[in-house]
Amino acid sequence: MINGMNADAAWVAPIVSIPSFILMVGISVLELLVAAIQAYVFALLTSLYLNDAINLH
User: Fold this and answer.
1) Contact at 8 Å (CB) between 2 and 10?
2) 28, CA 20 to 30 Å: which among 18, 47, 52, 56?
3) CA distance 47 to 44
4) Half-sphere CA count of 1, side-chain side, radius 13 A
């Protein structure tokens, strides 16, 4: 027995852990993409506001 598992359940761990790891990496990449888009939009809006504040028409 491996850590309380019998031989029938020993093959389940790799089958479950590999897709779980891939899903975790995919969600992390998606979070980084969202963070980058938020930073870009914040910088764009800040620069537009500062441009309008400095250059009064």
Assistant:
1) yes
2) 47
3) 5
4) 4
Helix (H) or strand (E) holding 22: helix 12-54
pLDDT of residue 12: 75
Cα 48 from chain centroid (whole Å): 28
CA gap 46, 54 in Å, rounded? 12
For the stretch 1-55, pLDDT in tens is 456 666 666 777 778 888 899 999 999 999 999 999 999 999 999 999 999 999 9
Q: Hey, is 5 helix, strand or coil?
A: strand
Cα–Cα distance, 27 to 21 (Å, whole number): 10
CA distance 11 to 51: 61
